[in-house]
Structures are given as C-alpha cells and as structure tokens.
Amino acid sequence: MKTFFTKLFSPILNIFEKGEEPEHYTPSHRKILLIMGILFSILSVVSVYFGFRTEVMAALFPAILFAGIGIVCVIIALLGSDRAVTNIWQSTRQSR
Question: Average pLDDT, whole number, for the chain?
C-alpha cells in the first residue's frame, strides 16, 4: 500500500528528495512535521466552516493555502525519505 501511495505522490516527493544525504535528521523532525500537517489541515477545515458560516468567499483562499501546506506536510511525514524530511528542515534553517 505504501508503494502505491509513494508512486501516486512521487511528483511532490521528488521535489524534496533531491540533494545529498541528510546530515541532521532525527525522528522527532518527522513527528513534528506530521503534527504540523494535521494542525494545518484542521485550520483549513475551520477556515472553510467560518467562511460558509459568515458567507465570505474570501475565506476560501486561506483554506486552500492551509490545506495545501497540510497535505504536503502529511505526505512527506508519512511517505517521504529521511532526505525529504531533512530538506524541509534545512530550507527553514538556510532562510534565516
């Protein structure tokens, strides 16, 4: 089952699996990435709920943005290699 989903989401995974072997990988990075993905997905659902509740369609933009970030985080946390997880964390380190 994992191989099927890995092939299905390979366009997303290939973006983050480029580069050299991970230098600073720890298993906690994967757990934090999964939690972050779940939180962004919940935030997306809440944004859609309040957007429809207040009848403001502009609330769909942040909902789509949060859903995209959440889905990418969950995909990489569950299916990505150690290199993919490390590349996400390194990209935040290099931007400082």
Answer: 87
